[in-house]
């Protein structure tokens, strides 16, 4: 069975600072991994996804993530935080034994300080 | 084109009443998923449709929950005899086909409050 763990339910960074949101996965097969962002009172929006094509994945809004098999990690980064990045971020892995439903992490709420 | 839409956006009901939540997926998307987002449980899968059939209902928390999909398009999630623990945001997502690399596109959700 697949699972993901997000370390840090709340992360605060200063505007212009590096954003690092952590996600570790557990999977007995090559995983498909996703990062979604949720702004207040909105649905989930895809930031990026790893589908085994390249280990460094670039997404929207300047975000990227690197798949590291040796560390079972898929951390999300952005070089310079913007106030508009304040939101909740979810890491997810696809359950590949059946219907490809998402298994989500518990989420990380990002706060950007002026 | 239009994204996934859900209605109502908010629903307040009394304990014991039945509620229906609607999802309109992106046109042409054959796969449809329902998830629930609650404070205690995070984001959890409820049910999956491929076309009009539901091969995976493993996430439905009790037999008070049911869902159907008609015409390979609109889906309705029904909760009978609502309980306070049913209070949550119910999210619907659709994808073009069923595959591990396919992106699921989410609607804005329905916030259900059971008094």
**Intertermini distance of chain A:** 41 Å
What is the rounded distance between the termini of chain B?
37 Å
Order of helices and strands of chain B: EEEEEEEEEEE
Task: State the secondary-structure class of chain A.
Answer: mainly beta
H/E order of the elements of chain A? EEEEEEEEEEE
Rg of chain B, alpha carbons: 13 Å
- Number of beta-strand segments of chain B: 11
Give me the Rg of chain A, rounded: 14 Å
- Uncertain runs of chain B are none
Q: Helical stretch count of chain A?
A: 0
| Low-confidence runs of at least 5 consecutive residues of chain A | none
Number of helices of chain B: 0
Oligomer: heterodimer
Mean pLDDT of chain B: 93
Total count of strands of chain A = 11
Q: What share of residues of chain B is helical? A: under 10%
Q: Give the integer mean of the pLDDT values of chain A.
A: 93
Strand content of chain B: over 45%
Describe the structure.
- The complex is a heterodimer of chains A (114) and B (115).
- Chain A is mainly β and 114 residues long.
- Chain A is built from no helices and eleven strands.
- Chain A has strands at 3-7, 10-14, 19-26, 33-38, 44-50, 56-58, 64-68, 73-78, 87-94, 102-104, 108-113.
- In chain A, the strands form two sheets. In chain A, strands 2, 4, 5, 9, 10 and 11 form a six-stranded mixed sheet that branches. Chain A has a five-stranded antiparallel sheet with strand order 1-3-8-7-6, with no helix packed on it.
- In chain A, strand 9 (87-94) and strand 10 (102-104) form a beta hairpin.
- The model of chain A has no long low-confidence stretch (mean pLDDT 93).
- Chain B has 115 residues and is mostly beta strands.
- Chain B has strands spanning 5-7, 10-13, 19-24, 31-38, 42-50, 53-56, 65-69, 75-79, 88-95, 105-106, 110-114.
- In chain B, the strands form two sheets. In chain B, strands 2, 4, 5, 6, 9, 10 and 11 form a seven-stranded mixed sheet that branches. Chain B has a four-stranded antiparallel sheet with strand order 1-3-8-7, with no helix packed on it.
- Chain B is globular.
- The termini of chain B are far apart.
- Classes of the chains: A mainly beta (114), B mainly beta (115).
- At the A-B interface, strand 5 and strand 10 of A face strand 4, strand 5 and strand 10 of B.
């Amino acid at each position: 069975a697949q699972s993901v763990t997000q370390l840090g339910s709340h992360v605060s960074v200063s505007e212009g600072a590096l954003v690092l949101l952590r996600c570790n996965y557990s999977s007995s097969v090559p995983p498909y991994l996703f990062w979604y962002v949720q702004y207040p009172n909105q649905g989930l929006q895809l930031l990026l996804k790893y589908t085994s094509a390249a280990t460094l994945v670039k997404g929207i809004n300047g975000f990227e993530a690197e798949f590291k098999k040796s560390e079972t990690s898929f951390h999300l980064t952005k070089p310079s935080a913007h106030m508009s990045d304040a939101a909740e971020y979810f890491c997810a892995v696809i359950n590949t034994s059946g219907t490809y439903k998402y298994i989500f992490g518990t989420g990380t709420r990002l706060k950007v300080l002026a | 084109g239009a994204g996934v839409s859900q209605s109502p956006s908010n629903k307040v009901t009394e304990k014991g009443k039945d509620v229906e939540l609607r999802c309109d997926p992106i046109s042409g998307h054959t796969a449809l998923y329902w998830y629930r987002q609650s404070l205690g449980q995070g984001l959890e899968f409820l049910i999956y449709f491929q076309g009009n059939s539901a091969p995976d209902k493993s996430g439905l928390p009790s037999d008070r929950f049911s869902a159907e999909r008609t015409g390979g398009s609109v889906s309705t999630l029904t909760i009978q005899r609502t309980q306070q623990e049913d209070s949550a945001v119910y999210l619907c997502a659709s994808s073009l086909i069923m595959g591990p690399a396919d992106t699921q596109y989410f609607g804005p959700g329905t916030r259900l409050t059971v008094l």
